[in-house]
Amino acid sequence: MVGPNDIPEALKGHKYPAKSHNKKVKDILLKTRDDLKSDDVAVFIAGEEVEGWKYCDTDRDFRQNRYFYYLTGCDIPGSALLYNFKNDNLTLVLPNIDWDDVIWSGLPLSLEEAKKEYDADDVVHMKDLENVLQKQLGDISKFKIYTTDLDNVHNETLKKHLIPSDKDFFFALDEARLIKDWYELEVLKHAAKISDTCHLAVMSALPIELNEVQIEAEFSYHALRQGARSLGYDPICCSGPACGTLHYIKNSEDLAGKSSILIDAGAEWRQYTSDVTRCFPINGKFTKEHREIYETVLDMQTQAMELIKPGANWDDLHILTHKVLIKHFLDLGIFKKDFSEEEIFQRRVSCAFYPHGLGHLMGLDVHDCAGRPNYEDPDPYFKFLRLRRTLEAGMVLTNEPGCYFNEFLIEEFLKKFPERVEVVDQEVLKKYMYIGGVRIEDDIIVTETGHENMTKITSDPDEIEKIVSKGLERSRSEFHALV
């Protein structure tokens, strides 16, 4: 198991590459805007601040501004950055020392310590911001100073000269984050490694998991033990028919009397997240119908996985998985054999059972930026696809096809369309409703020659049965030993 202080060997002795990230944004912005020159452009971004709860003396969980973190690697609340395009100088501005707070919370990171930890040319306190602006920019009225927003900018003079919410600046930020560098990939691999252990722990501990919330607790416990102080998103822990709810949030139902479990959860490490989904049988053995749907989704994922490489169009891979699902549904009798695969495909029938996209970009956000989705697309095959571009080396994405039996999806995508309804054998369909759904999700790096799967926890149904059964058998042995 990964320990809480374990750091990948490749990262030891290296700082988060903040300066190269700033340079990347600079190059993209200058390429996008012919009217801009390095001599009079800068970036100033104020990071997030600690926010308290209303009518209470405790604070909300802190989450750093992702763009700020990308350009600094700094997770200290109340910090800011100044990057000068002319000389590529990066200044990290830390909050002033609150001496009243020191007696309760201890000393914050010193400027000297911060200089050693962060990839910045200068580190100063907020009280020295005016001096930094004068030193770096001189007459700030002659500069175009871009920022994300003005929310935490408290210097009124500076605020008047900032350019917030510029679409070209955000385009540069997003495109810079699209291709991960070696440092980011190492962080993501470590996050994936932590998640592997967590998913294995959940599969192995079913005897003590009698409720969905206990599945969530098991995953979170093992993530924290390995140094992941938070998860990348609210985990989805569902059982039985609830497995058909794509973004299930209850995580509170008992497991008794159900056959299937779906857990979609990923650990976050150093602000970068993993995103993994696994499904397994509660009693250690897939039912006939559960196994059939599981193997359908596994085939969808496997066929898409084989084509992940630079130059591949994600739309095409997504459509391939729909065609694989259609073929399996015909074999299972869920779709009537009176209709051809092509006819069923043209009618969009499979959207009632697989409404979401094949996958999405991943990094500092679980649904990372620069995917270029089009949620106004009238075609149900593509409307909810978060990634709509050709793959490039350095992209990190999820491969996560699914198949769901959800009455609301069936109502929305099937029953409103007579030409789709007539394709489905309703009596056969009823046999699969208890499963809820299956999704298999892995985290993938697009490499120069193909891809690398960072997710190592098995998705083989036979291996999954062995893991779950071993946990159940161990529990029975321990029970008999006690009595």
TrEMBL record:
<keyword id="KW-0479">Metal-binding</keyword>
<comment type="similarity">
    <text>Belongs to the peptidase M24B family.</text>
</comment>
<dbReference type="GO" id="GO:0006508">
    <property type="term" value="P:proteolysis"/>
</dbReference>
<dbReference type="InterPro" id="IPR007865">
    <property type="entry name" value="Aminopep_P_N"/>
</dbReference>
<dbReference type="Pfam" id="PF00557">
    <property type="entry name" value="Peptidase_M24"/>
</dbReference>
<dbReference type="InterPro" id="IPR036005">
    <property type="entry name" value="Creatinase/aminopeptidase-like"/>
</dbReference>
<protein>
    <submittedName>
        <fullName>Putative peptidase</fullName>
    </submittedName>
</protein>
<feature type="domain" description="Aminopeptidase P N-terminal">
    <location>
        <begin position="16"/>
        <end position="155"/>
    </location>
</feature>
<dbReference type="InterPro" id="IPR052433">
    <property type="entry name" value="X-Pro_dipept-like"/>
</dbReference>
<dbReference type="InterPro" id="IPR029149">
    <property type="entry name" value="Creatin/AminoP/Spt16_N"/>
</dbReference>
<dbReference type="InterPro" id="IPR000994">
    <property type="entry name" value="Pept_M24"/>
</dbReference>
<dbReference type="GO" id="GO:0030145">
    <property type="term" value="F:manganese ion binding"/>
</dbReference>
<keyword id="KW-0464">Manganese</keyword>
<dbReference type="Pfam" id="PF05195">
    <property type="entry name" value="AMP_N"/>
</dbReference>
<keyword id="KW-0378">Hydrolase</keyword>
<dbReference type="GO" id="GO:0070006">
    <property type="term" value="F:metalloaminopeptidase activity"/>
</dbReference>
